[in-house]
Design a protein that fits this description.
Helix 14 packs antiparallel against helix 17. The two termini are about 35 Å apart. The chain is an alpha/beta fold. The strands form four sheets. A five-stranded parallel β-sheet has the order 5-2-1-12-13, with helices on both faces. Strands 7-6-11 form a three-stranded antiparallel β-sheet. It has a three-stranded antiparallel β-sheet with strand order 8-9-10. It is about 50% helix and about 10% strand.
């Protein structure tokens, strides 16, 4: 037994009581694996998921499978694609919350490691990671996709001016090239052999967007760090969700088309969104834009739905897109629109019955999105009634921060065997318990949103 096992034979009851108010499925995962190795927890998260049974869920899975097939075609040989899709059909799981950062970012690296553990422990040849790309290149001072974290310093990854970094979005900023001089300067100051050469191999490449660059660089880093090829990461992002959303808008008969376009259905949806936002859990909901983000001049723009059009508030000459199915569909295909988080999780996870693994805020808002969809289904329509029955089981899981190493990725790499980093970490996390790795759920206990929920519950009782 580990020290953590002896010290805390059961998870903190008060924390689980708060989590269970919104996402009891996450609590069950924690309870089931509290004293188990972290690799067992990862195995549990990547367990099989029941196949879609209702008409809307089957249609959503078919759309997701088609857009995934296109994505896999860019990174795999044709004979491998069928195997990966068949594995995904049985164990459809997406690791979310990676936020378009290089794997040199500690939190991103730890999250991807958990996903890799889940794939390997279930014998999968690949696993899917969602790289959110709508954030700006610099989110706050010297943080975000435009910066490379090397542990004791930050490097301007693409050599962009600070004004550009804080205004342009990772998914549309481009074309970009690597900041060769900045990277080489780091190589003079620190032992960078585990990652610098991999990055500099792409120093002469021109990438269409920063998101394309970060995806390609992460693929290269991963391949260099794990030459065993035990499980391959497949990175997807908002643009794939946009392609899926466009497919949902192909016809008037699609459930999402009806919810968005039919006035009475959208009114009911708007009401459900407002009800959720005003509930005690409303602080989990992201509500920065109305249904879609707009893309203009390499920047993601907030949109509001006004008089039947999506417009940029207080910008008379900004985007103006009719909120009608053909116009929305074409704007998605043209890259002018991206779905917001609500629509994104509907098309990637909730409707196609995919388990989504994310962070502490995500487990809250995915549960709310799930409840919002249930609230707007028509019980008099047989297919929607069948979907409501199917949605009684939520596929929502915690994965960001379960592994939470406090040292930089560069320091972690220095202690691991070259070319076999992930296999060595597999051995480590087969002996470290979930309770030990999470420090008895310290991250949850100290999370501001969950703390506020806990205080509100205590006050109410």
């Amino acid at each position: 037994m580990t020290a953590a096992f002896d010290r805390t034979p059961a998870p903190p009851a008060e924390i689980l009581a708060v989590l269970s108010l919104l996402c009891p499925e996450v609590v069950r995962d924690i309870e089931h694996n509290w004293n188990a190795p972290v690799s067992d927890y990862a195995r549990h998260l990547w367990r099989p998921v029941a196949r879609p049974a209702s008409g809307p869920a089957i249609a959503a899975r078919s759309i997701l499978r088609e857009v995934l097939h296109q994505r896999l075609g860019a990174v795999m040989q044709p004979e491998e694609i069928g195997k990966v899709l068949d594995e995904f059909e049985h164990r459809p799981v997406i690791q979310s919350g990676l936020h378009c950062l290089l794997l040199m970012d500690r939190i991103t690296f730890d999250a991807l490691l958990l996903a890799w553990l889940g794939a390997v422990e279930n014998g999968l040849s690949a696993f899917v990671g969602f790289m959110g790309t709508t954030m700006t290149m610099e989110t706050i001072g010297r943080e975000g996709p435009g910066w490379l974290d090397v542990g004791d310093d930050k490097v301007n990854l693409f050599g962009m001016g600070r004004h550009k970094l804080c205004r342009k979005s990772a998914c549309v900023a481009g074309p970009v090239t690597l900041n060769k001089r900045g990277l080489e300067a780091v190589g003079d100051e620190t032992d960078a052999s585990r990652w610098l050469g991999t990055l500099l191999a792409s120093q002469d490449k021109v990438f269409g967007t920063a998101a394309d660059a970060l995806t390609a660089l992460n693929e290269d880093l991963f391949a260099n760090w794990d030459r065993s090829g035990m499980a391959l990461p497949v990175f997807i992002d908002d643009r794939l969700a946009g392609a899926a959303m466009a497919r949902h808008l192909d016809s008037d008969d699609n459930l999402l088309s009806r919810l968005l376009i039919e006035p009475a259905r959208r009114q009911r949806l708007d009401h459900a969104l407002q009800e959720a936002a005003s509930s005690p859990f409303g602080r989990f909901l992201p509500n920065a834009t109305d249904y879609f983000w707009g893309i203009r001049e390499e920047r993601v723009r907030k949109l509001v739905l006004d008089n039947g059009h999506l417009i940029e508030p207080e910008r008379p000459h900004g985007l103006c897109i009719p909120f009608e199915r053909p116009h929305l569909r074409q704007a998605l295909l043209d890259g002018v629109l991206l779905p917001n988080l609500f629509l994104m999780f509907l098309v990637l996870a909730i409707l196609p019955r995919v388990r989504v693994v994310g962070g502490l805020r995500q487990i809250g808002y995915v549960a709310l999105f799930h409840s919002i969809l249930l609230a707007v289904l028509d019980e008099n329509a047989p297919e929607e009634r069948d979907l409501a029955a199917e949605l009684q089981v939520r596929e929502n899981a915690w994965g960001m921060g379960v592994i939470d190493e406090k040292i930089s990725v560069r320091e972690q790499l220095a202690a691991l065997p070259e070319g076999a980093l992930f296999p060595d970490l597999l051995r480590q996390y087969r002996s470290r318990t979930f309770a030990e790795t999470t420090d008895d759920l310290k991250l949850v206990r100290e999370n501001p949103r969950w703390c506020k929920v806990g205080r509100a519950v205590m006050k109410a009782t």
